[in-house]
Specification:
This protein has helices at 7-12, 22-39, 113-117; strands spanning 17-18, 51-52, 57-58, 62-64, 70-72, 77-78, 82-85, 90-92, 97-98, 103-105, 107-108, 120-123, 126-128, 133-134, 139-140, 145-146, 151-152, 157-158, 167-169, 174-175. It is an alpha/beta fold and 178 residues long. It has one domain: 3 Solenoid (UDP N-Acetylglucosamine Acyltransferase, domain 1), CATH 2.160.10. A hairpin with a 4-residue loop joins β19 and β20 (174-175). GO terms for molecular function: acetyltransferase activity; O-acyltransferase activity. Belongs to the transferase hexapeptide repeat family. Keywords: Acyltransferase, Nodulation, Repeat, Transferase.
């Protein structure tokens, strides 16, 4: 018989989990306390995030769920007002620049209404490559991979993976001609 997994273990695996679980609520409360200090400039990224490369910068205000699932490469820059829902890993590669108000949303919800009534959630990891530029107000949906050197136009909603070296824009984001 397999041991019962905790809600946190389910969350980290990207499986359906109950977000109101006491352990997860405790983790979110700790993250909220850290965010309050960080946004006042009284805390560092290294205190909470999974990994922080050299010269990585996040301008306050910044918002996330847990923090420990965010992995930043060297010289990563997130401008004012970014949101990262990090119920599973969110990886951002070296030299990537992210505009103000960008939302990186790894959290997901069941399509089945019965499962939603049970307040279940899940997550799908997001990977953003190296030297990517994401314009202000863009939204990256769960499970997306953005390839190295890609550009995502301001206000875009990224619903599909973005190939390396390509430019996308719009809602939904579509490939732009060179």
């Amino acid at each position: 018989m397999m041991p019962q997994r905790t809600e946190k273990q389910k969350m980290l695996a990207g499986d359906l989990y109950v977000a109101s679980d006491p352990e997860l609520q405790h983790d979110m409360a700790q993250c909220a306390e850290w965010l309050a200090r960080y946004n006042r400039r009284d805390a560092s990224l290294h205190e909470r995030l999974g990994a922080v490369g050299q010269h990585a910068t996040i301008r306050a205000p910044f918002h996330c769920d847990y923090g420990y699932n965010i992995f930043l490469g060297n010289n990563v820059f997130l401008n004012f007002g970014c949101i990262v829902l990090d119920v599973v890993p969110v990886r951002i590669g070296d030299g990537t620049q992210i505009g103000p108000g960008v939302q990186i949303l790894a959290a997901d919800h069941p399509r089945d209404p019965e499962l939603r009534r049970k307040m279940l959630e899940s997550g799908r990891p997001i990977t953003i490559g190296k030297n990517v530029w994401i314009g202000g107000g863009a939204i990256i949906l769960p499970g997306i991979t953005v390839g190295d050197d890609a550009i995502i136009g301001a206000g875009s909603v990224v619903t599909h993976d973005v190939a390396p070296g390509t430019k996308v824009a719009g809602n939904p984001a579509r490939l732009l001609r060179s």
